[in-house]
Amino acid sequence: MNKKTYLCRCEDVTLEDVHKLIDTGVQTFEEIKRHTRCTMGPCQGSTCRNVLAGEIANKKGMKVEEIDIPTYRAPVKPIKLGTIAGGESDA
Amino acid sequence: MRKSADAVVIGGGTIGCAVAYNLAKKGFKNVVLLEKKYITSGSTGRCAAGFRQQWGTKINCLISRASAQIFKNLSEELDYEDIEYRESGYLLITYKEDQAQMLEKNLKLQNSLEIPSKKLSPKEAKEMIPHLNTEGMVAAFYCQEDGHVNPFKATFAYAHAAKNLGVEINTYTTVTGIKTNSNGASSKRKVTAVVTDNGTIETNLVINATGPYSKFIGQMLGLSHPIEPERHQILITEPMERLFDPLVMSFHHNSYCQQVPHGGFIMGYGNPHEPKGLNYQHDWTFLEEMAQKIVFQLPILKNVRVVRQWAGHYDISPDGQPVIGAVPEVEGYYLSHGCGKGFMLAPMIAKLTSELVAGQETSLPIDILSIERFKKGELIIEPAVV
């Protein structure tokens, strides 16, 4: 059985990946995002953002409120280009 | 943070990191890089991850060709993981006769400079990308040796190699001033130190590689650089199976779209009415217009979902061309800007900048890229910009 702990399921980022990056000097959530693509998948961090912030805070001995949460970007949920362009329903 | 340095590079984008690396490689023992946020937080990390050589001025062709060749072996040179260099090609399409003529003229220039671009008929373009709407298309132009590089990885690679050569990289450090001295009214001012929110570094060399923030650094020296930030918006879709290789650039729509190795389609367009100034907000209008443009060009993408949109900036000079070189008013102060093409030209811009700073002869004749050209009115007009 695979004992890895997945924090970001869209981009397969594990707790071990995050710890390793912090150990090598990558310190902030924004930087971890650029190194691993965490929160950049189809869910856009809606399932993993808080979990990641919690684990980064744990590892660094900080409070979650002190963690730099990456910017929330539109759209809230994925939309088809055809729907945005007009004339099609998003089935 | 170090108290003194042989050279201080301001800006942690690709150009800044590459300048720091190149200086260290040349033997500068003590180089410090200052970045206000984190590495790639500015224009680099917001760009479209493409590089092309299909330009309409000789200097852009030469710099882009040299940059592409550096990118090709960069992972090895910097001893870093795969930076996702892919010769996936750029396909420039046009639905207008006059644009086709402009691109044909550029093609001749490119070929004369050993860039292997070629003209395609709409039928040949359709064979290359069966999903392409070629109705009304006049011509297409293609270069196989254009393509994709991951901007995050390339920049981290330069930063990694720079650190290994002794460069000190200070992130989350804001430059608040640059000190100069002058031995009298007639003599030229000289850089003596860079002041940050985390201390002062004594130095006689400063390289401004801050892209859209350039003029704010200039103001610290009482100078007004005519380089303005201009917002550009961009979006990415969910990842899909590989649909096509080349980046499709439409001069008619002022847009581009490529499927990155990760699988998502990244796309954007230049808004001719975009006001100058810093603005990181994204808006719905962009999403709507971009969707319409791309569904026209590549109808198959209508069923692909947008997951994210964001905004970044071009650093726009009066002629839109790179600004590289010493600033005559202040000794020891240099500019290193790609002006909307910073990421793709970074490897060569950084090499040329480091040659200038080291007082060496440059690998390419870049006197024409000095900021002095704007005072003299010697603008370089590049016709093939999106």
Task: For the structure shown, list the relevant keywords.
heterodimer; A: 91 residues; mainly alpha; Arc Repressor Mutant, subunit A; 37% helix; 8% strand; elongated; B: 386 residues; alpha/beta; FAD/NAD(P)-binding domain; D-Amino Acid Oxidase, Chain A, domain 2; 8-stranded mixed beta sheet; 28% helix
How would you describe the overall organization of this protein?
The complex is a heterodimer of chains A (91) and B (386). Helices cover 37% and strands 8% of the residues of chain A. By secondary structure, chain A is mainly alpha-helical. Chain A has one domain (6-85): Arc Repressor Mutant, subunit A, CATH 1.10.10. Chain A is elongated, with a radius of gyration of 16 Å. Chain A starts with 5 loop residues before the first strand and ends in a 6-residue tail after the last helix. Chain B is α/β, with parallel strands linked by helices. In chain B, 28% of the residues lie in helices and 25% in strands. In chain B, the strands form four sheets. Chain B has an eight-stranded mixed sheet with strand order 5-6-4-14-15-16-13-17, sandwiched between helices. In chain B, strands 8-2-1-12-20-18 form a six-stranded mixed sheet, covered by helices on one side. In chain B, strands 9, 10, 11 and 19 form a four-stranded mixed sheet that branches. Chain B is globular and about 65 Å long. The two termini of chain B are 40 Å apart. Chain A binds chain B through residues 28, 30-31, 34-35, 37, 40-42, 44, 71, 73-75, 78-82, 84-86, 88, and chain B through 37-41, 45, 152, 156, 237-239, 262, 282, 284, 287-288, 291-292, 294-295, 301-310.
Task: Briefly characterize the structure.
The complex is a heterodimer of chains A (91) and B (386). Chain A is mainly alpha-helical and 91 residues long.
